[in-house]
Amino acid sequence: SAVDGDGGRTKRKRAPFESEAEEGRIERWQRLRKMNAAVQLKRMMGKEAVFRGVQEEAITAITAGESPVVAVMPTGAGKSLLFMLPAWAEQGGTTVVVVPLIALRGDMKQRCKRLGISCAEWEGRRPPDAAAVVLVTPESAVSEDFMTFLNRLKATRQLDRIVIDECHIVLNRRYTFRKQMQQLGKLVAAETQMVLLTATLPPDEEEELYRRMHFKRDQVKMFRARTARVNVAYRVVKVGGTGRRREKEKVVLDLIKRKLGRYETGKVVVYCNTVGKVKEIAGALGCNAYHHHAVGKDSMLKEFMEGKQRVIVATSALGMGVDIPDIRCIIHVDRP
């Protein structure tokens, strides 16, 4: 379905400022629908910029007002362009982006700044005004204060769309510390364009995602790119014996040393299932232990991304939305 009109509700007489705001919204969407996406991409990113994969198809659907739009694209394939380009082209409206990671929010904010897109992070006591992009955590997105903010944006005809990044977490019961991700279906009540982005949505989980988000399947515009990585090799090492813990630790240490020697500039991530194991392996390696409750985890990630640390040991808290191009080896201690 397309974003337009008032959803069939009984209309009351509008105040003059409401009529002006509605006219502005209509004109904004008319310009978006007529927009040449390829031309605008070059204006925003440079004359050499071209669309990749399903980017152009998805952006065409978004600028046409289709809703909901679901895009499944591999990490590093440019999912954020799907909302950044429309927001850059028409900055009179507001795009709300639900982002689960602090590090990713910081990265998005910097990218918006470089592109000249006004961007702000949601702070409950100081709602952002006149920002083309508003970044919000899942916890805040379903809060009463944020819903009030959304209603205000809607009343002033400024709310253009809501984007949920890493939307597969809506389905993941293991992320007990992010229960609000499973409540994001509440945002449908805002009656605005919905755009969901992920690199991880198997076809057999589509129906469950639609159910939790209160989407009707026949209304969803799905764009799916190939996410399998042909340049990735998998290897399983079985570790047994009486000194299993020590042996496992030795296997991990030896493997990391070999990989670091092979790739002079590459990075290694070691995943463990528990915080205790993360601390234990990190202690043996002399590197940072990254988990949800770790003190200074943002600076840990920054150091790792900048290459100041080539090895990091982490729980799955590190995996959401992090795009680090020079990771050469990922080791899972125990079954993932």
Automatic annotation (TrEMBL):
SUPFAM superfamilies referenced in this protein's UniProt entry, alphabetically: P-loop containing nucleoside triphosphate hydrolases
Single GO BP term: double-strand break repair via homologous recombination
Catalytic function, reaction form: Couples ATP hydrolysis with the unwinding of duplex DNA by translocating in the 3'-5' direction
GO cellular component: chromosome; cytoplasm
EC code(s) of this entry: 5.6.2.4
Enzyme class: isomerase
Helicase ATP-binding domain residues: 60-219
A Pfam family the protein falls into: DEAD
A GO molecular function held by the record: 3'-5' DNA helicase activity
Keyword Hydrolase annotated: yes
Domain Helicase C-terminal: residue ranges: 255-336
Keyword 4Fe-4S assigned: no
Region listing for Disordered, in residue ranges: 1-21
Family assignment from sequence similarity: Belongs to the helicase family. RecQ subfamily.
UniProt-recorded name of the protein: DNA 3'-5' helicase
